[in-house]
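Protocol check, entry for the methods section draft. Step 1: assemble the input record (protein sequence plus ligand SMILES). Step 2: submit for complex structure prediction. Step 3: store the structure tokens unaltered in the notebook. Ligand used here: S-adenosylmethionine. Step 1 record:
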Amino acid sequence: MTNAAFWDKLAPRYAAQPIDDVPAYEETIAVTAAYLSPEDRILEIGCGTGGTAQTLAQTAREVVATDVSQGMISIAQSKLTADTSNVSFKVASSDEILDEAPFQAICAFNILHLVDDPKTTIAALSRQVDEGGLIISKTPCMGEGAFFMPAIIWVMRQFGKAPFVHVMTGDQLEAMFHKAGFEILERRKFGSGKMNPFIVARKAS
Ligand SMILES: C[S@@+](CC[C@H](N)C(=O)[O-])C[C@H]1O[C@@H](n2cnc3c(N)ncnc32)[C@H](O)[C@@H]1O
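Step 3, stored output:
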């Protein structure tokens, strides 16, 4: 099964699933929104069914939200209303350079561990963000979890029950941002997500 096919199949269930830790999610959104200005054009990669893009659109001029899965994007588009006319959803891989670039900020929530190579993805995002612009991410870093987690994911993957997952630590992810020419403005964790560092990285100007 391809990566996109895996997420297409999961999309209806993903849309119906309640948010795991609502206070942590709300805090993540509030801290992210505080970094945005009403004039900003934002890209969100791996947007899933689009709830975060619609919320962030209240504090930005425009949000372009992409996902590799047509299933996810179709659900996201079905939720658009007259109040969210500054949001557009489109099918695109995280590494694609979009015609809509450049952006003032790029959001990447629960996605950088799922791409083939986070370094390649960060390089692609770097090409699409303004100098001094931000990449705001939250990433499950399995390298900080129990040592047997990667093995469990590998087994689940053989049965089509898990996607490809890149195993890394928060320090390794932070180093990738540094190497790509970003400085780290903030790194923290919300709620019980001990393996999920929230990292705000600014491109050198
Ligand atoms: C765990 S979900 C996260 C969705 C949303 N960002 C959230 O935090 O709820 C991961 C999303 O990334 C998408 N995805 C996986 N690999 C991708 C890739 N290489 N490029 C773009 N999107 C991808 C999946 O289709 C899925 O919607």
